[in-house]
Amino acid sequence: MSNIIQLEKLCNDFMLGEIVDVPVAVTGGFMHRMYAIQTTLGRYVVKALNPEIMRRPTAMNNFIASERIANVAAGYVSALPAKMFKGTSIQEVDDQFYLIFDWIEGRVLKLDEINTVHCGIIGGILSDIHKADFSELVIVNNGSNDRQSTNWSFYLEKGRESNAEWANLLFEQIENLHAWNKTAIASTNLLSSEVVISHGDLDPKNVMWNGDTPILIDWESAGYRNPKQDLIETAMYWSENERGQIDRDKFSAFIAGYKKSQGTLQANWAMTLASGFLGKLDWLEYSLKRSLWIECTDEEEQRMGTSQVTGTIHAIIRYAETIAEVEEWLDH
Predict the structure, then answer these.
(1) pLDDT digit string, tens, across residues 111-120
(2) Number of helices (H) and strands (E), helices first, in the chain?
């Protein structure tokens, strides 16, 4: 069944009105597909959840929990949770799962458009999320301290067998990847005793701006995080330029925005920054799986995975080269 027919059925099943124009594919990150839909009753954005991801044993519960978090967070910050029908945010049509959102006016800022004011605003919003009371949700922290390092040699072997364009780059960095992975897991385990519930992926692509007003979207990574690690990772996202370099003024503005309601910050910053490798390494492994057709649905997704492997390795290298300087900023 075609995407359009499925979307028409979705609109009929949930009384969104009749589609009056051809659905338009819109940018929705690197994992799922999104469509803008105009109907007789309104305008919506529909996120078609990646079938490969939804086959994971924990996926459904994770999406349910993240949308519950988004709904509570909307009482503290400007957030956009998915619409609920019959008590659930996740809708199913012909074995395909969807999230449905009301259309909002706004746009994502490009990296060269972000200034210190934007950074200060988002820093303050992150602080508000960290202080929010999510206790009514009774969400269990399923974090584990027995995580093992990824077998990067397995992916290198598979990449060489398929003549993957990233194989040589992975080979050049494989010893570093093992070292970064080991250090990141150890640091994350040590930081796991201090956690809050947070958005989990509050980078610029997940904030829509309507004038000076930010609206937080895409809560699917929401869950427990170490607050200092979440702070530093998010501050670096917002202070990065198009070449991957961190602007100190933007970084400092973000930290200052956060500190307005948090007070003095104290942490083992070296450990905090080391733990920051883990999310990037997880994304690299997922991209490798897509590129190698291990966890992939079609050629477009495979090409995206291949592109992301190369880009992510370079991003991890830049991160490794940057963290010593960032630690010095934080210490002073």
Answers:
(1) 999 999 999 9
(2) 11, 9
